[in-house]
Amino acid sequence: MNNSSSTAAGAGTIEIGGDLRVNRLGYGAMRITGKGIIGDPPDREVAKAVLRRAVALGVNFIDTADSYGPEVSENLVAEALYPYPEDLVIATKGGLLRPGRNQWTPDGRPEHLREACEGSMRRLKVETIALYQFHRPDPKVPIEESIGEILRMKEEGMVRHVGVCNVTEDELRRARSVAPVVSVQNRYNVSDRTSEAMLDLCEKEHLAFLPWAPILDRQGHGAVQEIAAAHGATSTQVMLAWLLARSPVVLPIPGTGSLAHLDENVAAAGLKLDPSEIEVLTGPS
Predict the structure, then answer these.
(1) Which of 27, 68, 132, 188 is catalytic?
(2) Domains annotated on the chain, with CATH
(3) Contact indicator for 161, 181 with CB cutoff of 8 Å
(4) Is 27 in the active site?
(5) Region class of 179: left (phi > 0), else alpha (psi between -120 and 50), else beta
(6) I need a labelling partner for 157 at 20 to 30 A (CA). Which of 28, 101, 120, 229 fits?
(7) Who contacts 260 (Cβ-Cβ below 8 Å, separation ≥6)?
(8) Tens digit of pLDDT for each residue in 187-216?
(9) Alpha carbons 274 and 184: distance in angstroms, whole number
(10) What does the mean pLDDT of the chain come to?
(11) pTM of the predicted model, to two decimals?
């Protein structure tokens, strides 16, 4: 397939929260940081070029977090893209601390979430965060308390919509008992179906489902490689195309710090798999 001929618009659109309509292939801004998701990337100008290229390719949903860097990803998003295009939705997250490289410690205390949200607003240079996601439930804090604080921030105009990440079905139910949750971000890909039931629930309840780690085990999945060869595509493109075909509520957010990989990812929006190919990949992995 021709990578240069596709934009994110080829994936169609999705509506989040009833008033945010975006192309259904986004960009995850975790990989524009340093090794172990700590510190600056090897080249900040390249990272900013990737962000600008994503928008030029029709990506109008960018997912970031205060813990990516920490703070590095959000700062780069603003440096590269502010003032933002009118149709660009920037989603961010709070609720994780970074004590060291590859270390992620949950902190769901209301006071921390408010401080984190205020920091994200400053770095992103926005008065309201379009989608603020609770990054991970904290076993030391009832999820109702964490989501309750995000709801208060929503009522104060700091947050437009509320999302949750890395949750079980029970945690989602409890969160929704407190606030109107519009999205779920859980790990999900062609090889890892742990959140299969969660995706089905999101489809039933009309919640956006943002699969993180959408590209995994490129070489170990034989069917993916066979389908890629048949289409003249890459394994990565097949995995993303399958996610797009899996459900209309899926909003993939593949991340990369490479311009070439970005082009490859976005081109997946133009790859249409045959029903038989979708069935093969959807079967037992």
Answers:
(1) 68
(2) 3-282 (3.20.20.100)
(3) no
(4) no
(5) beta
(6) 28
(7) none
(8) 999 999 999 999 999 999 999 999 999 997
(9) 28
(10) 96
(11) 0.96
